[in-house]
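Researcher: Sit down with what I've pasted below and flag anything odd:
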Amino acid sequence: MTIATGDARTVTLSRAALSVDAAKRAAYALMARYDVDVAVIGDDIVCRLLPANSTVSMETAERDFRREVIDQDLRISIEERTAPYRDAILGLAFSRTGLQDG
């Protein structure tokens, strides 16, 4: 299927505020609706969105993508902040299983 270039939406994000990983995660989360090309150009993350199929409306594509990027960026921040606790809990849980005894 060929998509007209007029259907594309370009979203530019600041690398100072958001991470490339967040943009990639957002692209993955929305892949059923949009095909996303992620590129780093200077201090920006430039994302080009195209409809994944002919039934997808591009009316809210930029809004949907920006919201998902923010959500993913916050998830990454929470993962980083809670990693020591998660590791401690997992370490404690596995230390009592007897799996290390050999």
User: Anything to note?
Assistant: The helical segments are 20-29, 61-95. The radius of gyration is 19 Å.
